[in-house]
Amino acid sequence: MIEKPKPYEMITDFVTGSEIPNIGAEENRQQVERFLVKTKGYSKDDIEVDADLKFSIGDEEVRSNVDLVVSVQGKRFMILKCVPGSLVSRQRETLAAARLLDAYQIPFSVVTDGKDAELLDTVTGEVLDRDMEGIPSREEAVERMKGVKLQSFPQERLEREKIIFRSYDEMNINVQRKLQGKGQSA
Q1: For residue 51, which of 38, 32, 64 has the smallest C-alpha distance?
Q2: What is the DSSP-derived secondary structure letter of residue 182?
Q3: Biggest alpha carbon distance in the chain?
Q4: What's the confidence (pLDDT) of residue 84?
């Protein structure tokens, strides 16, 4: 007997306006998107949803995505991983994504369930704040970017960081990504 996929309730993504399945931590992400725009002063244009993350480990191509990426003044400033449950258990995956997504380490990483958040310094891995209010506003982000020296991730640690990200990412049950055909190793 062939199992039919169960129907998913569709909702409209706050930032993109696209119809998306309401599964996994999607409600958390929608809450965070609204928070970033309505409370923290970012425009929808400052926020990338499901930013593509691609890299190779040997002959294997890894494809995934990052829930939210916030840019200010044309530079990626912060990534946000929206999760159900424990924030601490997702810190390492989030840091790895922020270190691999661009040519430089995106300065700040956030793990959030929409109610609580942990703001991390991507370069050091240090937890800087532990609540939603600790997420920098757009105005604070512009100010912080003035003092940030964008750094590439050390080449000698790059392969290890890729393996760490892939290991966490493979454990994620991301039905939405599978429905869209994303996140499959080639």
Answers
A1: 64
A2: -
A3: 60
A4: 83
Tell me how far apart the alpha carbons of residues 67 and 7 are, in angstroms, rounded to a whole number. 23
Number of domains in the chain: 1
The sign of the dihedral angle between the CA atoms of 122, 102, 51, 14 is: positive
For the cut 70, the answer to whether the pLDDT of residue 99 exceeds it is yes
Please state whether 40 falls in left (phi above 0), alpha (psi between -120 and 50) or beta.
alpha
In a domain, residue 14? The reply is: no
- The pLDDT tens digits of the residues spanning 116-158 come to 999 999 999 999 999 999 999 999 999 999 999 999 999 999 9
Q: Give domain status of residue 180, yes or no.
A: no
The secondary structure of residue 127, as a DSSP letter, is: E
In the DSSP assignment, the letter for residue 117 is E
Q: What is the 3-state secondary structure (H, E, C) of 50-70?
A: EEEEEEEECCEEEEEEEEEEE
Q: What is the pLDDT of residue 4?
A: 52
**CATH code assigned at 126:** 3.90.1570
DSSP, res 123 = T
pLDDT of residue 76: 98
Domain membership of residue 95 as a residue range: 45-172
